[in-house]
């Protein structure tokens, strides 16, 4: 196991990159702590696989360094990095049995027969494939093939890091949640550093202690699931995490106060001095409620999602979503929306530009 450091990493697939738009990774500086459970979350094309392949050595970055426990491995090939990588689609040997597939990474390292047998049976037990051990891999369903592929990634206990690149893509939805919690459990048991790549917020938030959110080749925020939910550092994180995502509303700043559609909105605390650029107010639907006063809005849609209602209302040409309990308003009704002040933040050019009130500033 090792701490993994990425230093000034940049990567372009072009021979002569010019502007930042030619880079699949723009500038990445990151520490992955030894034993951590990480998720790398972002939409398709944001550079997740590029980053993983640089860590595993399948790809040499255009610029920057990768360090394992302080040692530069940037130029080392994958087989000398002591890592395990599980890909989106199963990588197994069809002609071998399931047992031999699982044993292969250990045999390859010259592990003794007794240890191999113990590890293979342990992993098979965890993944619930014990009854298939003697079958040939060729006959397995895609689900089971991918489970074996994951097992091959987990069977060694001496790797620096286990990386999963969207491993549940081919897995049946009802099996997905099961494997997801299984992976979490596995991490707690083996304590290896794990990096789990996905574009699915639910997968990321259930697996990881720390989530690294990427957009357009850049890391926009690193945080615990709670931190990402409560204080998105960027409106992208606000949109991407949550269901529905954070409301982001056009705003104006005057004398340190924020106005939406001419009406002042109470904030979590002071706006950073010197804030300029495109100003927006961010508040999650969970913190929008109905009241007797507040922002006047027209209800456009009401969805009953079981335990609560989600409404979409329109005010000043903007859509505002709210998650509500109790009696739902009617479509077409005029309502007054209130934002919980301590959960209402200001963003400038996408980045957070307000700070929570301290006792001093509130006094
Ligand atoms: P993700 O895994 O987040 O979907 P990728 O790392 O695969 O994203 O891709 C990041 C960007 O790099 C995308 O714009 C993609 O088109 C480009 N890219 C990925 N692989 C290659 C490649 N082998 N050659 C050229 N461009 C690539
Ligand atoms: Mg990918």
Automatic annotation (TrEMBL):
List the GO terms this entry assigns under cellular component, sorted alphabetically. ATP-binding cassette (ABC) transporter complex, substrate-binding subunit-containing
User: What keywords sit in the KW lines?
Assistant: ATP-binding, Cell membrane, Hydrolase, Membrane, Nucleotide-binding, Transport
Q: What's the EC number here?
A: 3.6.3.20
PROSITE patterns from the xrefs? ABC_TRANSPORTER_2
Stretches assigned to the ABC transporter domain: 4-241
For this UniProt entry, the molecular function terms from Gene Ontology, in alphabetical order, are: ABC-type ferric iron transporter activity; ATP binding; ATP hydrolysis activity
| CDD domains the record matches | ABC_Carb_Solutes_like (cd03259)
Q: Which family does it belong to?
A: Belongs to the ABC transporter superfamily.
- The protein's name in its UniProt record: sn-glycerol-3-phosphate import ATP-binding protein UgpC
């Amino acid at each position: 196991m090792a701490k993994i450091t990425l230093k000034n990493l940049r990567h372009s697939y072009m021979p002569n990159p010019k502007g930042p738009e030619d880079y699949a990774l723009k500038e990445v500086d990151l520490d992955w702590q030894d034993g951590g459970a990480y998720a790398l979350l972002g939409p398709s094309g944001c550079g997740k696989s590029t980053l993983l392949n640089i860590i595993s050595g399948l790809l040499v970055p255009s610029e920057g360094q990768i360090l394992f426990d302080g040692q530069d491995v940037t130029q080392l090939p994958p087989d000398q990095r002591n890592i395990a990588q599980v890909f989106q689609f199963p990588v197994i040997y069809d002609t071998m049995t399931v047992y031999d597939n699982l044993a292969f990474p250990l045999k390859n390292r010259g592990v003794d027969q007794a240890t191999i047998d113990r590890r293979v049976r342990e992993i098979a037990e965890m993944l619930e494939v014990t009854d298939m051990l003697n079958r040939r891999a060729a006959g397995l369903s895609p689900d089971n093939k991918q489970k074996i592929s994951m097992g091959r990634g987990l069977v060694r206990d001496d790797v620096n890091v286990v990386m999963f690149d969207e491993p549940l893509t081919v897995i049946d939805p009802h099996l997905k949640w099961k494997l997801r919690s299984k992976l979490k459990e596995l991490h707690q048991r083996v304590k290896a550093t794990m990096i789990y790549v996905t574009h699915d917020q639910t997968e990321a938030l259930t697996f990881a202690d720390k989530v690294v959110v990427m957009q357009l080749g850049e890391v926009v925020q690193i945080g615990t699931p709670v931190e990402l939910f409560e204080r998105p550092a960027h409106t992208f994180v606000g949109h991407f995490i949550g269901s529905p995502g954070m409301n982001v509303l056009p705003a104006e700043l005057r004398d340190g106060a924020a106005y939406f559609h001419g009406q002042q909105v109470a904030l979590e605390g002071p706006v950073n001095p010197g804030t300029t650029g495109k100003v927006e107010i961010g508040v999650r639907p969970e913190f929008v409620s109905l009241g007797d006063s507040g922002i006047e809005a027209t209800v456009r849609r009401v969805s009953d999602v079981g335990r609560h209602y989600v409404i979409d209302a329109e005010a000043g040409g903007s859509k505002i979503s709210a998650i509500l309990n109790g009696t739902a308003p009617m479509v077409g009704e005029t309502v007054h929306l209130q934002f919980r002040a301590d959960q209402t933040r200001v963003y400038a050019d996408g980045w957070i530009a307000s700070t929570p009130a301290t006792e001093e500033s509130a006094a």
